[in-house]
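MOLECULE: protein
FOLLOWS: sequence and fold
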Amino acid sequence: MTSEHRAAFLHEFLRDPFTVAAVAPSGGPLADLITAPVPRGGDPVVVELGPGTGAFTAAVQRRLAGRGHHIAVEINRRFAGLLAGRYPQVDVAVADARNLREVLAERGHRHADVIVSGLPWAAFAGGRQDELLHAVTDTLAPDGAFTTFAYTLARWAPPARRLRRSLGTRFDEVVAGRTVWANVPPAFVYYCRRPRVTVRPPALVPA
């Protein structure tokens, strides 16, 4: 992560803290854990939600090693531009993650094999959390995997508890990984499998 990307991350946090919700990108050890379900064989469709400046993108690319289709969905245009310049092999979509089905359909896909999330769940109200999680379960392959992270020190805060409950209602299997104390702040990964079918909320009007 270059100083330019760190500065951009801080600038966007100060401009819109409720969308970015962190003052620095996640670290390498957390990136390795959150991308662990990305298969090292075949041609999987891997979706990255809220990649920011690419904290997890490099780890996804290392695991894919030129295979598959890596789609990064980023609503912040500045982040999207930085990401596209740094990783030209990544398909960067400037879009709201709640419109994930439409993003995939535009690229000829119905499902994603793995969805990796860098979204700031604690910054979202309950309704938006629900819409985002529905977008995930609506597009994840039945045998696919969804990963996201949470900050350890905020684990018992209301937004974090709400997220954990929501994951439990939308997936048959939810496993919390170990805490990465070297991350700033310390964080852990949720590994979610076997999405449950839910009723889809009304479609969003594209921005």
User: Anything to note?
Assistant: The two ends are 29 Å apart (CA to CA). Helices lie at 3-15, 17-20, 28-34, 57-64, 77-86, 100-106, 126-139, 158-170. The beta strands are 45-49, 69-74, 91-94, 112-117, 140-151, 171-176, 187-195.
